[in-house]
Write a structure and sequence with these properties.
The chain is α/β, with parallel strands linked by helices. It has six helices and four strands; from the N terminus they run E-H-H-E-H-H-E-H-H-E. Helix 5 packs across helix 6. It is globular, with a radius of gyration of 14 Å.
């Protein structure tokens, strides 16, 4: 199982061939997980109701990890440690905490947003 960051899914939707190949052939669709934060970001970024409907339908095929008390606590800890020193943002803290909680790697193109979190494994 691999947790995919929002930027990866955006690249997929834009038709990035490299991203499509990684998700379809290397990770495999049945091993893709998404944070509920990624869903929120993608829903928010939809340009129309029609696009939102297509996004929702496509994403329904993947495992969705919702926030829970432990993920919230982990993300609070990450914010406390890294928000001032590394400008860690709330959505990234929540996505990173989800990856830590489930002990799965995070696939992101924005490695600079996460590489300072020592316990976090990046795909």
């Amino acid at each position: 199982m691999v947790l995919c960051d929002t930027d990866v899914m955006i690249e997929f939707f834009k038709g990035n061939v490299s991203t499509k190949n990684i998700l379809k052939n290397d990770i495999l669709p049945e091993n893709i997980a998404l944070s509920s934060i990624t869903l929120m970001e993608l829903y928010f970024g939809a340009k129309s109701k029609k696009e939102l409907t297509l996004i929702k339908k496509f994403l329904s095929a993947f495992e969705i990890f919702k926030l829970n008390e432990e993920i919230t606590d982990l993300s609070l800890n990450l914010i406390e440690i890294y928000s001032k020193s590394h400008s860690l943002k709330i959505p990234d803290a929540l996505i990173g905490a989800t990856s830590l909680y489930y002990k799965i790697p995070l696939f992101t193109y924005n490695k600079k947003d996460f590489n300072f979190i020592k316990e976090l494994k990046l795909y």
